[in-house]
């Protein structure tokens, strides 16, 4: 219980500091955008490389991990189809909404929860790697192409998705992991230090964005918010439970699949929304609401399946 609550308390404390900074105007009006860009272009790629370069590639394809990947993709697809075909929402916003529905907070919240509920942080590593190497880069390719749409297919525009810092860091990290190679300490140490600013910068930027924001659900994106929250907080863990049972998971492996699916939308999604200026309100409110709802859902899941 303590580990779960500590994870939520950590996130809440840093977000609160960000809110106070924004409320008092200490960092200026542009602080939220600057911190988001800092996290996107510097902190996240560095953290991503450090995480992936030391990963065990073999853990990415076990049954429990495949259940986690499948349920995440199912939620994203369900959101994309509903928002695009039925709600007729813009493409860029729909991509961000899809991430809100399926991209879980496997890092700064998932790790302490995994330690408490699953007995070790290694359970969330495959999901984190899948999101950082597949979901995020694929989304960036689409968002980059949408950003360049109407400008003509120049060489620069064609190369833009490939030059995304997250995609480049993912590729470098996977190559290092497969080759079992690490850069010398004089190179790795600065990368590790820069990676350490990613999560605090994301959370502070998120807190700053809450200044002056209405309560969730009061914007013109209420329907999209409800859709993303229902899929993320309720349908995804229920689907993980059902699919896990169907493929023979039980005990700790079933618990791991359901708990990971019950994690809230990651703050990364808000950073991505800020970077591309698509679905910012939707991302902010989804992160906030799903984080609040995940407390009872995760605790109930752990109590029932532990």
UniProtKB/TrEMBL annotation:
UniProt topology in membrane: Multi-pass membrane protein
Transmembrane segments annotated in the record for this chain: 6-26, 38-55, 67-87, 94-118, 124-146, 158-179, 191-213, 225-247, 253-274, 286-305
GO CC list: plasma membrane
Keyword tags: Cell membrane, Membrane, Transmembrane, Transmembrane helix, Transport
Record flagged with keyword Cytoplasm: no
Primary localization: membrane
UniProt superkingdom: Bacteria
Entry's localization field: Cell membrane
GO biological process: transmembrane transport
Family to which the UniProt record says this protein belongs: Belongs to the auxin efflux carrier (TC 2.A.69) family.
Name of protein: AEC family transporter
The species this protein was found in: Miniimonas arenae
Classification of source organism: Bacteria, Bacillati, Actinomycetota, Actinomycetes, Micrococcales
């Amino acid at each position: 219980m303590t580990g779960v609550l500590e994870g939520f308390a950590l996130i809440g404390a840093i977000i609160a500091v960000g809110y106070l900074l924004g409320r008092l105007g200490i960092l200026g009006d542009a602080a939220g955008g600057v911190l988001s860009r800092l996290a996107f272009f510097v902190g996240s790629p560095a953290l991503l490389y450090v995480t992936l370069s030391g990963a065990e590639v073999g853990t990415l394809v076990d049954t429990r991990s495949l259940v986690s990947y499948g349920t995440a993709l199912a939620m994203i697809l369900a959101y994309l189809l509903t928002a695009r075909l039925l709600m007729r929402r813009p493409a860029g916003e729909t991509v961000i909404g899809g991430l809100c529905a399926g991209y879980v907070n496997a890092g700064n919240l998932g790790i302490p929860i995994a330690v408490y509920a699953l007995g070790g942080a290694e359970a969330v590593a495959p999901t984190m790697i899948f999101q950082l190497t597949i979901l995020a880069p694929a989304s960036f390719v689409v968002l980059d192409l949408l950003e360049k749409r109407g400008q003509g297919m120049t060489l620069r525009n064609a190369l833009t998705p490939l030059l995304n810092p997250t995609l480049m860091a993912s590729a470098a990290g996977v190559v290092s992991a497969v080759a079992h190679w690490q850069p010398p300490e004089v190179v790795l140490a600065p990368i590790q230090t820069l990676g350490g600013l990613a999560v605090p910068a994301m959370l502070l930027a998120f807190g700053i964005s809450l200044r002056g924001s209405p309560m969730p659900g009061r914007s013109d994106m209420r329907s999209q918010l409800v859709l993303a929250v229902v899929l993320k907080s309720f349908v995804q863990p229920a689907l993980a439970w059902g699919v896990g049972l169907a493929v023979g998971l039980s005990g700790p492996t079933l618990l791991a699949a359901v708990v990971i699916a019950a994690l809230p939308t990651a703050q990364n999604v808000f950073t991505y929304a800020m970077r591309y200026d698509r679905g910012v309100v939707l991302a902010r409110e989804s992160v906030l609401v799903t984080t609040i709802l995940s407390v009872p859902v995760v605790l109930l899941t752990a109590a029932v399946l532990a």
